[in-house]
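Sample entry follows:

:::
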Amino acid sequence: MKINNSSNKIQVRDLQLVTREAIGHMKEGEEEKTKSYSALIWTNKAIQKKDIEFLNDIKDLKIDQKTPLRVLHRRPLAVRTRIIHSMETRYVDEHHFHLYLKTQAGTYIKEFVHGDFGRTKPNIGSLMNMTADILELDVESVDVDWPPALDD
């Protein structure tokens, strides 16, 4: 493929034209998709490693999210139930830790961390009984089998 031969900084795979029907099929499965994220979290109170370890044991946590204030101008007001499938923590220092999340697609991660003034319940802040905020957020993966793999 011309793109892959022209650079070692980016690689493309399974590039193809798709039908409207195929796009519709992909959109239908959006609720079932999972996404993985890594985030750097700040806490207002000093923490120790033991203060965050309980998050690792929480599985398939149901949360209710009102449309976040930051997107309300472009999305309708609604309450959406989303699932946090798993969390993994890595202690950094007394006010910071890394949080690795696997969530249902459509989950507002920033709001799950800081709570969006009580609009996302529960949230990391409420679970830890302190103020939490997100300093960095990276999408690590989108787990969906699409588009179809092509033979090389």
Remarks:
- Residues 2 and 17 are 16 Å apart (CA to CA).
